[in-house]
Write a structure and sequence with these properties.
By secondary structure, this protein is an alpha+beta fold. Among the domains are: 87-97 and 140-225, no CATH class; 251-283, no CATH class. It has helices at residues 7-13, 38-53, 122-132, 273-283, and strands at residues 55-57, 61-63, 71-73, 95-97, 155-160, 165-167, 175-177, 180-185, 191-196, 199-204.
């Protein structure tokens, strides 16, 4: 089992970035110095992710009247708890946070102040502490979350599968939709919430690192290309001389065209003899 952690463990875990090895007893070597082992760092990371990414459909829970920092199931006087249909869960405003937020003091609630003056008002001191480190509203919609580094939304919603809505014979569920709505957290890559047929849950598959605008690891340089294969070339020859036979040139030195039969000085016989002979003389001028 993983150990319980303190606010100091959570504070120290926020200052470092380490990849997990699976060895819970390994001493974490990093800068700034971390005094605990990997199991305390893992437990702190799980707390940070679960308190930030646990979502529920809107309307399933409600605030307690006497204490707005607590919630309870929204049980009506008659009938089951109202659950939005699958088609409505594709809208970001229908997803709300279930857990409390982790305060700047690395707790989920403020401790009672210790006063040296017995005449001081404890309630006034609590208000001052909460003003410096306020609670986030319970059941806050995910549309109110701040954008991640890079300027895009904190959550991405997609609907997968058959998006058609079918009629159902059960009056409790008049419409049936078999698709799955997936909500992806962009603050913690790998955290997903999903909803289908009135059921919802969460899963996390990641490396335990929060989203950053720049890469944590340096990008490896591309591979060096190999030298091209040198093809065989003929050796260069200098002082080349050319000899042109006079038998294949005319009086101007141009190559003599071949005759109509493919041989010089010979012409075809027949009705086209005179025309071919005239063309031959024209080319041999």
């Amino acid at each position: 089992m993983l150990p319980d952690i303190t606010s100091d463990d959570l504070k120290a875990a926020k200052t470092i970035k380490v990849l997990f090895t699976g060895d819970l007893g390994r001493k974490v070597v990093t800068n700034p110095f971390y005094f605990k082992t990997e199991k305390e760092y893992l437990r702190s990371t799980i707390a940070r992710i679960s308190f930030s990414t646990t979502l529920v459909p809107k309307g399933v829970y409600r605030l307690v009247e006497d204490n707005p920092n607590d919630i309870e199931e929204n049980v009506p006087d008659e009938g089951p708890i109202p659950v939005p249909p699958t088609a409505e869960m594709c809208k970001a405003q229908n997803w709300v946070h279930y857990t409390r937020n982790i305060l700047k003091c690395n707790r989920v609630t403020h401790l009672d102040p210790v006063l040296d003056d017995p005449d001081a008002d404890v309630d006034e001191e609590k208000k001052k502490i909460e003003a410096k480190d306020p609670y986030e509203p319970r059941l806050k919609a995910i549309t109110l979350d701040a954008k991640v580094k890079g300027g895009y939304a904190a959550w991405s919603i997609r609907q997968h599968g058959d998006v058609m809505t079918y009629a159902n014979a059960n009056p409790a569920y008049p419409n049936q939709n078999y698709s799955v709505v997936v909500v992806k957290c962009n603050f913690w890559p790998g955290a997903f919430s999903f909803f289908s047929e009135g059921q919802w849950s969460q899963i996390y598959v990641g490396d335990g690192l929060k989203h950053e605008a720049q890469r944590f690891f340096p990008i490896m340089a591309p591979c060096i290309q190999e030298d091209p294969v040198e093809r065989f070339t003929s050796p260069e020859v200098s002082n080349l001389t050319f000899h042109v036979s006079t038998a294949t040139t005319n009086r101007r030195g141009y190559p003599r065209p071949r005759g109509p039969t493919g041989q010089h000085g010979q012409a075809r016989t027949g009705p086209r003899r005179r025309r071919m002979k005239a063309l031959y003389k024209l080319y041999t001028l």
